[in-house]
Amino acid sequence: MEIFRGENVSLNPFRKKETGNLVGRFITDSLEYAKAAANKFPAIIKSAEIPKKAFLKAKNLFDDIHFRQGPYSTSTSNLGLLEKGDTGKLKINILKTLGVNIQNLTPLAVKGLNILASLPVSTITMVLQSTPANADEANMTLEDFAKLNEGSTNVDKALPSEPKDI
User: Where exactly are the structural domains of the chain?
Assistant: First the structure.
């Protein structure tokens, strides 16, 4: 069965990391519960595949230390405490981590990212949505296009002018 752990990442280098016997060992079988635990930007979601027997052992350990949960089959999300040696099994799940971080962005940050991304996206869209050639242009060669361009005026050419007294 798949288990999850949600963690908020501290960007403050001066903040002391929490230490203790239970830090980093809480797990759940519900992805939504793990996302709720990782409720600030940036955050990570870790996951691992463990046998159901190992999760039931972790659930019983949690029940003994904190509070008794309902039976495994009736609860929508169960909490557990991993053994210290099993915490290394949890690996960062990249897709779920990206998903939770996108959800944690503030509306102002999303608006800023939209503005930042709009120019490259519009350029790519313009290139990909080129207009199709009409029936007359479909069989034209480069020489035909050059003949069409001969009669057009170029904006960069100097305009004729006469010297005047100021």
Answer: 2-104
